[in-house]
Design goal:
alpha/beta; single chain; 8 strands; 14 helices; about 325 residues
Length: about 325
């Protein structure tokens, strides 16, 4: 039988974190950190599988998402603040060194927490976004753009143009996403397409198109893919974004200077001594490290790095649920974790 997911809330003087929990409390701790635009529920399949193996699984809604606190000020959405949220939750859960599993921005939090607080981390699983010891930020990312696909004269920010658009047209970007929350989420959560590899990503065209959805300024009406999100879970995802909108989650893109300064304050220049598994989507046209330099900083900064690739796009944890579990299980066994 699948282990049930239990909804819980932890409150500190500075923040409220909603989280899901599964598996025996006496089991070794595995914490799952989602990215944009998601909630802890995206990890249902992974939590059920690892809870059945005896792990104590926890998946919080990160700051600005789901049922956790949604601060008003954009400056509240720094990586440092989110790491502090998660360390408070970690202390509440007992504080024993954990396996940290991240996707997208959740990978940033998992690696940043492990760099700044190595005593809290036994191992790290990064999915769909490599580790950048100098931070996941435009100045870092643009230097690594594949100029064979994105000539600098035509695409100065490469596939990260959508990131730039937040910084130049934040209110418009959020308004477009909020215009039809269900359609926005359905359009974002699409499976990978192998034919798109090596071509210009739609995320490189956001500024010239006047927004993610162009002149329509709202997502096209289309059904969600039930193979990625079970319908009931997708309904919950839509419900949470309807409640608070995309402003808080998108504010994560607005704090590059503070985030870079925080990354540079990590001990050992951000080098990770723990075992690290990076799970790359072969069809991820934004974040794949195949055939480009995007993975170079991670290789240089990780003392014990394993790279695995799966035939998936950016939403690998929901696109290849069973395969993702299998890769992590094999890595855990190989590292004696």
């Amino acid at each position: 039988m699948n282990a049930p997911l239990t909804s819980k809330t932890f409150r500190s003087a500075r923040h409220t974190t909603h989280y899901l929990e599964a598996g025996p409390e006496e089991g070794q701790l595995m914490v799952f950190l989602h990215g944009w635009p998601s909630i802890g529920l995206m990890w249902r399949a992974q939590m059920e599988a690892f809870a059945a193996d005896g792990w104590h699984c926890v998946a919080p809604d990160l700051r600005g998402f789901g049922k956790s606190s949604v601060p008003e000020e954009m400056s509240e959405y720094t990586v440092e603040n989110v790491v502090e949220d998660i360390t408070e939750l970690h202390d509440h859960l007992g504080g024993e060194p954990a396996i940290w599993v991240g996707h997208d921005w959740g990978s940033v939090i998992a690696s940043s927490l492990s760099a700044h607080h190595p005593e809290r981390s036994r191992g790290i699983v990064l999915t769909s976004l490599a580790y950048f010891p100098d931070m996941n930020a435009l100045p870092t990312l643009v230097r690594l753009v594949d100029r064979g696909i994105y000539p600098i004269e035509e695409f100065p920010d490469g596939q990260w143009d959508y990131y730039r658009y937040y910084n130049t047209h934040f209110d418009a970007a959020v308004a477009d996403l909020d215009a039809d929350v269900a359609a926005s989420l359905a359009s974002i959560y699409q499976p990978g397409n192998p034919e798109a590899v090596g071509t210009v990503s739609a995320t490189a065209l956001v500024t010239r198109n006047g927004g993610r959805f162009g002149s329509a300024h709202r997502a096209p009406a289309e059904p969600a893919d039930p193979n990625l999100w079970p319908p009931a879970d997708f309904h919950t995802l839509v419900e949470t974004f309807t409640r608070h909108g995309f402003r808080g989650p998108s504010a994560w893109y607005m704090n590059d200077a503070a985030n870079i300064a925080y990354a540079r304050s990590a001990p050992y220049c951000g080098r990770l001594s723990q075992p690290v598994l990076f799970v790359d989507g072969e069809w991820d046209v934004i974040c794949s490290t195949t055939g480009n330099r995007q993975g170079d900083p991670m290789h240089a900064a990780c003392a014990d790095l394993t790279v695995s690739r799966l035939p998936a796009g950016h939403w690998l944890p929901v696109e290849r649920k069973a395969e993702h579990v299998d890769v992590i299980q094999s890595w855990l066994r190989s590292k004696g974790l």
